[in-house]
């Protein structure tokens, strides 16, 4: 078995070409290091250095040992630095970007709890568009972000944390409110958007990732929707739809914002249902801190509890 001390000792001898100079660097005596080298070579069953040469020269097996040892030493140093960084994280400022997405109901309670349980972590929430979040993550103006997928910036990495069906909401008095076929969702039936080609819609403005999903859904049906109102976010969209009796595309998370839960009926929008994916994103070159990992884990738990 190779120990970390073996690697440190052999790298020091190889660097100096001398046991005495290596011993000085390692703060041990020359006889002790000589004895250790002999013991190691006996354990390995090979000679690592040509003893008759000055300075000491590596044998071919010794060169192989040192090449691998250098890689291991780098990993060991990286690990020690990371452990030290985590250990010294007494106070952290965590800048979290989020868009007006389905993640909001889960971020809020988790952040409230962490502000009480982790007083040394100052969490600042910043509401931005998904693209603005990616841009700020890339220049380290944010530490963490929750975005509508897919991500666009190559310097960002993201993983899906939440998925929801894209739903069609229609007024409860609509003539098709009783329609809907059985679907994979236990809560909402499936309905074809082609039946609503002449209905007025409240839709998100162009340039948003939700609007991209909506465009694909209408494209599958072969028509351009009658957009009566363009909404800046999903909160406004569902409010407009309820007040003015229009159709809307939304997700389950925003249905709770209805003033009257019985005012609208909801269906999975077909014929080819699509899911909205929310991702947790960070700068590809910036390692996740303990606080960031804790926040992500708690939000995942909060999402799991809601299922």
Summarize the topology.
Elements: H1 4-16, H2 19-26, H3 30-44, E1 49-50, E2 57-58, H4 60-87, E3 92-98, H5 104-117, E4 121-127, H6 130-138, E5 144-148, E6 156-165, E7 167-171, E8 190-192, E9 200-204, H7 209-221, E10 226-231, H8 234-244, E11 247-250, H9 252-255, E12 264-270, E13 275-283, H10 290-306
Parallel strand pairs: 3-4, 3-5, 8-12, 9-10, 9-11
Antiparallel strand pairs: 1-2, 5-13, 6-13, 7-11, 7-12
Helix pairs in contact: 1-2, 1-4, 2-3, 5-10
Describe the structure.
- The chain is of the alpha/beta class and 307 residues long.
- The protein has three domains: 4-87, Winged helix-like DNA-binding domain superfamily/Winged helix DNA-binding domain (Arc Repressor Mutant, subunit A, Orthogonal Bundle), CATH 1.10.10; 92-158 and 280-306, 3-Layer(aba) Sandwich (D-Maltodextrin-Binding Protein, domain 2); 167-273, Periplasmic binding protein-like II (D-Maltodextrin-Binding Protein, domain 2).
- The chain contains ten helices and 13 strands.
- It has helices at residues 4-16, 19-26, 30-44, 60-87, 104-117, 130-138, 209-221, 234-244, 252-255, 290-306; strands at 49-50, 57-58, 92-98, 121-127, 144-148, 156-165, 167-171, 190-192, 200-204, 226-231, 247-250, 264-270, 275-283.
- It has a six-stranded mixed beta sheet, with helices on both faces. A five-stranded mixed beta sheet has the order 4-3-5-13-6, sandwiched between helices.
- Helix 1 (4-16) packs across helix 2 (19-26) and helix 2 crosses helix 3 (30-44).
- The chain is elongated.
């Amino acid at each position: 078995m190779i120990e970390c001390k073996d690697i440190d000792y052999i790298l020091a001898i190889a660097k100096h070409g001398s046991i005495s100079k290596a011993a000085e660097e390692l703060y041990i005596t020359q006889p002790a290091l000589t004895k250790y080298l002999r013991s190691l070579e006996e354990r390995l069953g090979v000679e690592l250095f040509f003893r008759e040469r000055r300075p000491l020269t590596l044998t071919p097996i010794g060169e192989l040992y040192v090449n691998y040892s250098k890689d291991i030493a780098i990993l060991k140093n990286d690990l020690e630095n990371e452990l030290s960084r985590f250990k010294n994280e007494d106070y952290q400022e965590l800048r979290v970007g989020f868009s007006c997405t389905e993640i909001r109901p889960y971020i809020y309670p988790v952040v409230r709890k962490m502000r009480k349980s982790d007083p040394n972590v100052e969490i600042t929430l910043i509401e931005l568009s998904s693209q603005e979040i990616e841009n700020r993550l890339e220049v380290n103006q944010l530490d963490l972000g929750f975005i509508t997928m897919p991500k666009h910036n190559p310097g960002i990495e993201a993983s899906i944390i939440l998925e929801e069906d894209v739903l069609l909401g229609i007024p409860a008095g609509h003539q098709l409110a009783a329609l809907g076929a059985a679907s994979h969702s236990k809560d909402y039936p499936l309905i074809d958007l082609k039946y609503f080609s002449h209905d007025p819609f409240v839709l998100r403005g162009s340039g948003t990732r939700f609007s991209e999903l909506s465009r694909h859904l209408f494209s599958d049906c072969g028509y351009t929707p009658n957009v009566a109102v363009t909404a800046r976010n999903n909160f406004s969209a569902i409010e407009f739809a309820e007040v003015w009796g229009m159709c809307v595309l939304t997700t389950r998370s925003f249905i709770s914002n209805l003033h009257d839960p019985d005012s609208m009926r909801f269906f999975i929008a077909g014929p080819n249902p699509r899911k909205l994916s929310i991702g947790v994103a960070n700068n590809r070159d910036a390692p996740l801190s303990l606080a960031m990992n804790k926040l992500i884990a708690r939000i995942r738990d909060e999402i799991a509890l809601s299922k």
